[in-house]
Write a structure and sequence with these properties.
This protein is mainly alpha-helical. The protein folds into 2 domains: 5-86, no CATH class; 93-239, Butyryl-CoA Dehydrogenase, subunit A, domain 3 (Up-down Bundle). Helix content is 51%, strand content 5%. It contains 7 helices and 4 strands. The protein has helices spanning 5-20, 23-34, 93-120, 133-155, 177-198, 209-222, 232-239; strands at residues 47-50, 76-79, 123-124, 127-128. A two-stranded antiparallel sheet has the order 1-2. It has a two-stranded antiparallel sheet with strand order 3-4. A hairpin with a 2-residue loop joins strand 3 and strand 4 (127-128). Helix 3 runs parallel beside helix 5 (177-198) and helix 4 (133-155) runs antiparallel to helix 5 (177-198). The longest helix is centred in the middle third of the chain and has 28 residues, at 93-120.
């Protein structure tokens, strides 16, 4: 089984958009590319979608607000499973889940860049926080995580083992569910490490914590976690309205 070249291109575009523009614009782009006119649902029926797309989903018709809870970040809506049966089938689960990994990597890279800017402007005893050994070590660990994740995702560009086509646009092989869940967990760990470096600022209304929270919510809804902690429905219901 392979993934078409155009799907992989959408994955890469989502990463670039998340890094340059933010999570909501990137999710809008990915949703329109892989799930046009349909709210992409997780395995238990939940969905996290850009609010501007609700009017494009056939399951809602003229009810553009749907029945979701509070927005986890401005412009992003969480939909309950109640409307799942009303709409047509959503995107391929592997294509969508892997696309979210690309998107979340870009969002995590955006968070890393914001962290660097913030720490560069903070002084401790006349020295930038970026020069502190523990801070440099933590940032290096996150960078290594990002490079590892990028390597895994870039490897999807390779064709099957018996394929002679080794170009960057060769058909991709999808990750299995367990591998994808581990990748999502690694992105979440990187985000949490960066938020710890930001201290209280990372969790203020104007800080980057809400976008990191929304990124983690995407993984909870669509991919879950390996092991007993992967009860997606409980994770989503416990998170709604807590930002």
């Amino acid at each position: 089984m392979t993934v078409p070249v155009e799907v992989r291109e959408h994955w890469q575009e989502a990463r670039t958009s998340a890094r340059n523009d933010g999570l909501v614009p990137a999710l809008t782009l990915l949703s329109r590319a892989l799930s046009p006119g349909v709210a992409p649902r997780g395995p238990r029926g939940h969905a996290v979608v850009p609010r501007e797309l609700l009017g494009e989903y056939a399951e809602f018709g003229d009810d553009e607000d749907g029945d979701g809870g509070p927005d986890p970040v401005p412009g992003l809506a969480v939909l309950s499973p109640a409307d799942a049966a009303r709409g047509p089938a959503g995107p391929d689960a592997h294509d969508w889940g892997t696309g979210l990994a690309w998107l979340r990597l870009g969002a995590s890279e955006r968070l890393r860049e914001a962290c660097l800017v913030y720490l560069a402007g903070r002084q401790v005893e006349g020295s930038s926080l970026l020069l502190q050994q523990l801070v440099k070590g933590a940032l290096a660990d996150v960078l290594i995580d990002h490079l590892e994740i990028e390597g895994v995702l870039d490897d999807l560009a390779e064709g099957p083992d018996d394929s002679a086509d080794d170009s960057p646009l060769a058909p991709a092989r999808p990750l299995d569910g367990a591998a994808l869940a581990r990748l999502q967990a690694q992105i979440t760990q990187a985000d949490r490490a960066l938020l710890r470096l930001l201290g209280a600022y990372g969790f203020t209304a104007e800080g980057p914590g809400r976008a990191a929270y929304a990124s983690e919510l995407l993984a909870d809804v669509y991919c879950g976690w390996p092991g007993p902690a992967g009860d997606t429905a409980q994770n989503v219901d416990s998170r709604k309205g807590k930002v």
